[in-house]
Amino acid sequence: MLFILFIGVIAFNRITQTHKVYLAFHFVMMLWPLGQFAVKLTDYPDVQLFFINMSFVAMGMLGPGWLLFVFFLTGRAAQLKVSRILYYILPAAICVVGALWNPNYQFMSPVSGSYLDRMYGPLFWLLVLIQFAYFFTALMSMFHTLKTVSSINQRRQLATALIGMFVLTGFGLLDVLVNVLLAQWMPVIPGLLALGILLSDLCFVIAIYRFGMFDILSMAQRDIFEHMTTGIIVVDENGKVLEVNKGASPFVQSVKGETFEMEKFLAPLQAQGEAYEFLYRYLHHPYEKMQMEFSLQESAGRHVSIQISPVLDDRRTLLGRIITFHDVTELRKLVVEMNRKNEALHERNLELITIQEELFRVNQKLEQMAVTDGLTGCFNRRYLMQQLEHEVLLNMRYQIPFAIFLFDIDHFKQINDKYGHLVGDEVIRSTADIVRTKLRRTDILARYGGEEFTIYLPHTNREQSELLAERIMLAVGDNWVDAGTEKVHVTISMGVLSESSEDLRFDDPKEYLREVFSSADSALYKAKNEGRNRVVMAR
Which residue intervals define the domain PAC in the entry (predicted)? Predict the structure, then answer.
């Protein structure tokens, strides 16, 4: 019956990786009833011993076989490394070696020279104990997985397999109890463990057919491999074709077992690159990933991209290579069209960038013209007043002292009348340049109107403002402007207003600034009346 089920599973199922593990386990299960049946067909003790040993080898491998099979049932096959498999098999292997060696009949001894009846020793009970330990571990693993899965179909698969494990474990316990422990008081019932193996195997077969267990993912991957439009050829390290799908047929005619000759394949193709270098790397650098685009001669305008990837094991040994073929004709057309549009767009963008840069320069110039005086490059009166409204509010909030200088050029009308407006403009410009050299970066110099200028100095107390005003006046007084054959001496009169942080209080900044400039203007007027070329402090 086990043999019939074995053939049935092979005949009616795709043989996936998990099926291979199951069939190996199934084969081990078949050895127990085969050995138990065959031992009764001969009277030769040596032949009987051979079949008995075969049965117990199968029995010894049932436990680790179950445990490893559970890893595949629960989707944890990736955890099975070689070292871990050896670790799982080692206890059972030691017991099997002890059974075959049978030192001093510690495993079993014949009765009356025949192995039809046997006496069991401590090594037999150690083997039984270890087998039940394997079954218990496998049961716990199945129970744990059954709690974590959410798919109803998967839960039914695992539940059916779990029933099979309980059946096998139960019949194994019954066989040991009846046919070994109670053999002196009860008649032997042959085939109990074999019946348990058969019934448990029926549970597995039901799970296979009813619930579609075993490596659905591998089946899906196989279907995808066969029906995908990308051509795929899998070759071994010598270039022999191991697998080829239907998608490769439009590009290359190749069948399993043949040798894929890359040089012959590339000969009629037109490569979009160095075909000889590609072939050289394919032949002499099999560990590298490669890609090349080709044009098929038999169909004008058709392009194919070939990619080659090595298949390596854990020790970086080359097992083979995967060659894929992608039809990139439409992609090439799109790329060409995209490049054409990109070039046109690039040209348009360059034009727009040029226009944008010109607009930026014009805007900069307009902004500069809007806030500066064209003759001196100083800020104009409009910008000054806007800035001061903001600055005095900050000064009041944070109690920051500041100063305002208001000055004009002495006897400027006489200079204009005597030397002309060009010299007058040069006097204004050179005076502004000299004053600018004496200021800090935070100070604001503005042309207030005509030959009159204003300076705003933040963070400046009375002593500092008085000292700086004297320094500016002296610097301007050292200035001489060319007026043809003569030189014009320039002096300024200055009114200075200094605001300390303690006295800074106002409600309307505009009204406050009018008062400030009125005070500074009064000080300037006083400086002119007192003889010019001097500084007068307001208030």
Answer: 290-340
pTM above 0.90, yes or no: no
**Closest alpha carbon to 53 in 101, 111, 113:** 101
* Distance in angstroms (rounded) separating the CA atoms of residues 137 and 130: 11
Helix (H, G, I), strand (E, B) or coil at 229: coil
- Pairing relationship of beta strands 480-483 and 318-327 according to DSSP bridges: unpaired
CATH architecture of 1-216: Up-down Bundle (1.20)
CATH class of 228-333: alpha beta
Share of the chain above pLDDT 70, in %: 90
Is residue 490's pLDDT more than 60? yes
- Our CA dihedral for 251, 252, 255, 256, rounded to 10 degrees, sits at -80
Using alpha carbons, list the distances in angstroms from residue 318 to 278, 285, 307, 429: 19, 11, 17, 83
Indicate whether 220 pLDDT > 70.
no
CA distances from 202 to 11, 208, 215 (A): 16, 10, 19
Q: For the chain, what percentages of helix, strand and coil (3-state, to nearest 5) are there?
A: 60, 20, 25
Contact 26, 201 (CB under 8 A): yes
Specify the pLDDT at position 3: 75
Contact 220, 38 (CB under 8 A): no
The domain 379-537 having CATH identifier 3.40.50.2300: the answer here is no
- Kindly state the DSSP code that residue 177 receives in the 8-state scheme: I
